[in-house]
Write a structure and sequence with these properties.
It is a single chain. This protein is α+β, with helices and mostly antiparallel strands and 799 residues long. Helices cover 39% and strands 17% of the residues. α12 crosses α13 and α14 packs antiparallel against α15. About 2% of the residues have low confidence.
Length: 799
């Protein structure tokens, strides 16, 4: 919440709102003797024997009295870090941080943040009391959860909430120690205090062996070992099959990650149904956390004294190299058994030497494993035969009953004829006939009449993926809001309680988090764009680029940065990302791009033409727009769910929300810019609409790709040369420009031969290209020496 600067005189820090930017520093963490001894700093400097901090750390740099005195480099799971000392450092004997003086200097700031947090906690309690079944403090044994537990007990009586420790079975020994200490301490101070332990009935190492190691692409561990166990524990505490509605006070903070920074302070049903996340210390920084711990004399998890910045599982795909080094050094037995599972996966990948295996692990390649490569196949698989005109799929060696998952999707009736199940399903108010043929090891599933039903295709694929791959991990049960689904040694569904909300089918983009982890993509995958980065697809929250934003941006130019008229705090990064992908903002810095002035000149004369240039830039640089123009067919009505389902096929490794957010942002841009036409407004005589939005009141119910009334010559020239630069094809034919599923005038603008030919002739007259279009010829020759920006500039001068 506060800015931070060094208090060099006292070897401390100062929290204040009145710190100039040039004096402000990132929030540091305190460094203790144990960490310095691990780094062997005691061999160079005389260190005090103390249990108090000695210096401070920011990233990999260490500071004493505001001076950097060494840097840590090159740590890894098998690699000891190198310590590089600062030759200009002037101290030889180091002293401990004077905690009393540190707290005295920052007393007012500490009181401010703690009072605000306690007010927030009390406000949440008053707001949700009587509306939830329980209040919970999520306790992990880490510093943030220690702060939350202390704050809550200062505000609320211990009888009014339950503290729950989520035991993943992968915690560090020192974490179990601090949990035991905390439990005993709070029981001594509050006789009615109780700390519940949410524990799985299965060992984490067994799950690693069964499911494969979790990875950054498929983090099944949190869903299976945290969320599922917590939700089951709450059911057991309340002795109910229905998921209790719970308000959770948690220690999530914005500065822990970019992803968390986008969270709201109160999240209602955001992460999971029937769950309200209350984040009292959401805006606290690292330094404020430690100062509060000092001020309240709260016992610190020993892992922080050893040098860990975050305390979590013994092995984690998101752990830093420094964390992996420390844990393996201090607790070798903790990491060993999990590393052995990774080593086995590496051998299955064909790595046949210890050197290659160690390199696979130390280079963090195991963390990037997205599918079943390296895991032993168990024979279960899903083969999609067709989607249209009928959906047909074959499941080999199914692990669960398709009837359960089909009912989770929708109501259906069925009968058996000659060994084949035939029936009729009601999906979104439409009836579809289906048939299922079950043999010893296969299930052939057919649904009739699924032309132009991408949302149904996606949901049916999930039903059958769950049929093939369910490992009874329990994640689906945790997401079921009504208690209809029970997952123990087998899966059961209460048809009287199921409301077909699809929460169980939406636990991953493939429908089953474990089947997704173990799936191997066969036959290759269509690369949509060689240079497109899909990792940043969710870059806009749900905010689309708006007409008025672009007006102000072109008016202000570089003065736009830092002022951001009419933009809320969460809109700013969205606007920047859109404009950067449109190539109007510099790729790395907050300043206008080289293209800005050129496009601005056109914008002042022909706003719609400039918007088409923006659309071309987004088609090439925005993952969501790229997918939209290539995969959404012209003149076919789609629902919002249809669009999301199609996007999921383009990005199979991403989860639902990662797809839904940018999809909603795209639809918002179409609605509030000249690119989209809403059915409740009048049509302009000249338009550049690329989509028609079917409106119902203030909501967008349907989307249909349409061809613009006109395509500007500058935008077409820019598009043609962007395509030539990416493919390196400068000699093409007209039909090449009308192929579906690649970026060209047809996919981006819906152009046909009828309106493309005259435009190519006009560009020939301008000297931008040469088109031989007489006598049955359709040859187009682009200038290899002309860049997309050159072509754009040349045409803008002529129009």
């Amino acid at each position: 919440m506060f800015k931070v600067k060094w208090d060099a005189q006292n070897n401390g820090i100062i929290l204040s709102d009145n710190i100039p930017d040039e004096e402000a520093i990132p929030a540091p963490r305190p460094v203790y003797l144990q960490e310095l001894q691990i780094l062997e700093v005691n061999k160079k400097y005389c260190l005090p024997k103390t249990d108090k901090p000695i210096c401070w750390n920011i990233d990999a740099r260490y500071y004493y009295k505001g001076q950097p005195f060494f840097e840590r480099r090159g740590a890894g799971i098998y690699t000891k870090p190198t310590v590089v000392y600062n030759d200009g450092f002037t101290f030889t004997n180091l002293e401990e941080v004077d905690i009393d003086k540190l707290l005295k200097i920052n007393r007012e700031a500490i009181e401010t943040i703690e009072n605000e947090a306690m007010d927030f906690i009390l406000g949440c309690y008053d707001a949700f009391k009587g509306k939830v079944d329980d209040f919970v403090v999520a306790f992990s044994g880490g510093k943030d959860s220690q702060v939350i537990l202390d704050l809550v007990t200062r505000v609320l009586p211990v009888e009014s909430f339950k503290a729950v420790f989520q035991d993943t079975d992968m915690e560090l020994p020192c974490t179990y120690d601090i949990v035991a200490y905390t439990e005993e301490d709070y029981k001594y101070r509050f006789p009615h205090f109780k700390l519940y332990h949410a524990e799985s009935d299965r060992k984490a190492i067994d799950l690693w062996k069964q499911y494969g190691p979790p990875s950054r692409m498929n983090r099944w561990c949190c869903a299976v070992m945290k969320t599922t166990v917590f939700r089951r524990t709450m059911k057991e505490i309340h002795n109910t099959d229905i998921q209790p509605k719970v308000a959770v006070f948690e220690g999530v903070r914005a500065d822990e990650s970019t992803r968390r920074e986008a969270y709201e302070r109160i999240g209602v049903n955001v992460k999971h149904p029937n769950l309200i996340n209350c984040r009292a210390i959401f805006r606290w920084n690292n330094a404020e956390i430690f100062l509060y711990l000092f001020a309240r004399d709260i016992e610190l998890n020993p892992a922080y004294r050893m040098g860990l910045n975050r305390v979590g599982c013994g092995v984690c795909p998101f752990a830093s190299d420094w964390s992996e080094y420390l844990i393996r050094r201090i607790y070798p037995d903790i990491s060993k058994k999990y590393v052995e599972v990774i080593e086995e996966m590496a051998r299955n990948l064909g790595l046949n030497s210890n050197e290659k295996i160690n390199n696979y692990i130390s280079s963090n390649n195991w963390k990037k494993n997205a599918g079943g490569r390296g895991l032993i196949p168990d024979g279960s698989r899903v083969d999609l035969i067709s989607k249209e005109p009928n959906f047909e799929c074959v499941v080999t060696q199914p692990k669960s009953d398709w009837r359960i998952w089909l009912f989770a999707l929708c109501q259906y009736v069925s009968r058996e004829e000659n060994g084949i199940v035939k029936g009729e399903m009601n999906y979104n108010g439409e009836l579809y006939r289906f048939s299922v043929e079950e043999k010893e090891n296969t299930v052939r599933f057919i649904v009739e009449g699924t032309v132009n039903k991408p949302a149904l295709h996606g949901m049916l694929s999930r039903v059958l993926t769950k049929t093939a791959g369910c490992e009874v991990c329990g994640v689906c049960e945790a997401e079921c809001p009504t208690g209809a689904l029970t997952v123990r040694n087998k899966v059961e569904i209460n048809k009287n309680m199921c409301v077909h909300c699809h929460k169980c089918l939406e636990v991953s983009s493939r429908g089953c988090i474990i089947a997704h982890r173990k799936q191997i993509n066969e036959g290759g995958m269509l690369v949509k764009s060689a240079n497109l980065r899909t990792s940043g697809i969710d870059r806009y929250s749900t905010f689309g680029l708006r007409d008025e934003w672009v007006d102000v941006f072109f008016d202000k130019g570089n003065d736009w940065f830092g002022t951001y008229p009419n933009l809320g705090s969460k809109m700013i990064p969205a606007a920047k990302n859109w404009l950067r992908e449109a190539e109007l903002i510099d790729e790395k810095e907050n300043k206008i791009s080289d293209k800005f002035d050129m496009v601005k000149g056109l914008y002042n004369r022909n706003k719609l033409a400039a918007w088409q240039i923006i659309w071309v830039g987004l088609a090439y640089n925005s993952a969501i727009v790229n997918s939209f123009v290539k995969s959404i067919k012209q003149e076919i009505p789609y629902t919002r769910d249809d669009i999301v389902a199609i996007m999921k096929e383009d990005f199979p490794t991403l989860n639902d929300n990662t797809i839904k957010n940018p999809t909603n942002a795209l639809i918002t841009m179409l609605r509030y810019s000249p690119l989209g036409y809403c059915t409740n407004m009048q049509t302009e005589a000249q338009n550049i609409y690329v989509a028609e939005l079917q409106m119902a009141g203030n909501s967008t119910k349907g989307i249909r790709r349409i061809s613009p009334g006109y395509v500007s010559i500058p935008a077409l020239a820019y598009l043609l040369y962007k395509g030539a630069k990416e493919t390196n094809y400068y000699d093409i034919i007209v039909s090449d420009l009308l192929i579906p599923e690649v970026l060209n005038p047809y996919t981006v603008f819906g152009m046909t031969t009828m309106n493309l030919i005259p435009a190519l002739k006009a560009l020939t007259q301008m000297g931008v290209l040469t088109a031989d279009l007489t006598g049955g010829l359709e040859n187009v020759h682009l200038n290899k020496d002309m860049s997309p920006d050159d072509a754009l500039a040349a045409v803008i001068k002529r129009v």
